[in-house]
Amino acid sequence: MSSDDDVHGASAGQAAQADEEAAGAMAEEMAEEMAGEWAGGTGEVWDVVVVGAGPAGASAAYAAATAGRRVLLLEKAELPRYKTCGGGIIGPSRDALPPGFVLPLKDRIHAVTFSMNGKLTRTRRSKQMLFGLINRPEFDAGLVAVAEKAGATVRTGTAVARVEQHGAAVPDRRTVAVVLADGETVLARAVVGADGSASRIGAHVGVEMEQVDLGLEAEIPVPETVAEDWKGRVLIDWGPLPGSYGWVFPKGDTLTVGVISAKGEGAATKRYLDDFIARLGLAGFEPAVSSGHLTRCRKPDSPLSRGRVLVAGDAAGLLEPWTREGISFALRSGRLAGEWAVKISEAADAVDARRQALNYAFAVKAGLGVEMGVGQRMLTVFEARPGFLHAAITGFRPAWLAFARITRGSTTLADLVRTHPLARKALHVVDNLQGRSGRG
Predict the structure, then answer these.
(1) Is 101 left (phi over 0), alpha (psi -120 to 50) or beta?
(2) Which 8-state DSSP code applies to residue 69?
(3) Verdict on whether the full-model pTM lies above 0.90
(4) What is the pLDDT of residues 268-304, one digit of tens each?
(5) How far is CA 82 from CA 137, 290, 291, 293, 330, in A?
(6) Other CB atoms closer than 10 Å to residue 10's CB: what's the count?
(7) 359-364 contacts: CB < 8 A, separation 24 or more?
C-alpha cells in the first residue's frame, strides 16, 4: 500500500471515529433532552418525592428534608383542606411531632363520658389532661409549613396518576418516575406514598387490606351555652353494631360528632349517626359539614415497599384496628419512611435499596405492627362483649387508669398487655372464650 493509501486509510479511520463520536454525543444530548422532558423540562432528579401532604406525608418530607436531601412534596388538593377525622391528639401523636411544633388545640380534654348506645352513662375525670383536640385542616397545613421550612418543596393541586420503576419513562435503575395526572413526569431516587386509604402508590406496592370501616361525621356549630357544657369533655358511645362506636369532640363553638362501623352496614351506620345526634339534642342544629370516609387496616403480611417506593400512614393501612386511631400511626410511620427513603435514595443498586426497604418494614412491624396486633385482639373482644369493656373502664379503676395512661402517651396498648399481668391475663381469658365460640 502506498503512502497515499496510508494517508487515505488514516483519514477514513479518523472520519469514522469522528462520526462515532458525533453519534455518541448526539445520543447523549437526546438522552438529556428526554430526561428533561421526563422531569418536567428541568432534567432534575429529586432525592425523595413524597405523595400526599397529610400527617404521614408531611412527616416523611420533614424527616428527609432535615437530613439535607432535595425533597418534593406533592398534594392533589389545595391547603388547607377538610379531612373526615375526629382530630384527637393522644400522647404518641404529640411525641411524634417535629421539635417545636405548636399544636393548634381547640380544646384540652380532662373528662370522658362513656355510654352503651345511650345507656349506662358514666363520666370519668382526670386532673391531668388526657388528650387534645385539633381541626385537621389547620393541623395538616401546619405540618406542611414545617416541612417546607426544613427545605422541602411543596406543590399543591397536583394529582399523581401512577409511579413507574421500569420502562421508557425511567432513565436508569436508580430512578422512579412519578407520573402526574396532567402527563408530566417527576423523577426521584426514592418515593414515599402517603396518599390516603385509597392510595395509588399503595396499589403499586401491593398493599392488601384486612379490615375496612365506614366513618360518618358532622361538624355542628352550637350556641355558646351548649359549647360550654361540652368544654373539656368528650363522649364515647359504644354503638349498636358489632365493633361500632360514636364520639362527640368539642372544638370551641363546634362539636365534631361521628360514628364508625364495619363497611357494608352503610344504612345502619347512617341510622346510628342520626339517632346519636337526635339523642344528644343536637338534631335542631344544621351541620356546617357532613362527610364520610373509609378507613382501611392492612393485612399483617402486606408489603410496605416495592423497589424504591415505600408507603406510610393510611396508604399502608396503618392504624389501630379497635379505635381506628390513625394520626399517631401516620406521624410515626411517616417519619420512619422519610428516614429510610433517604437511605434508599443513596443506595447504589437494587440490592442495597431492597435492604433499606426491609429495614423500614422491620421498624414499622416491630413497633406499630405490635400495637396493631393487640388492637385487633381488642376489637375481637369488643365486637362480641362490648359490655365487658364498658364495665371495666367505667367501674374498675385500674382499667380507667390504663385508658388514661394510653391517651397521655405514658404507655401503649401493647406495652400494657406485655408488662401488666392483670391486663395480659384478662386478654388471654377473653381470647380463650372467643376461641371456644369460634370467633378467635
Answers:
(1) beta
(2) -
(3) no
(4) 999 999 999 999 999 999 999 999 999 999 999 999 9
(5) 5, 11, 10, 12, 17
(6) 10
(7) 360/304, 360/305, 360/310, 360/336, 361/303, 361/304, 361/305, 363/336, 364/304, 364/316, 364/318, 364/333, 364/336
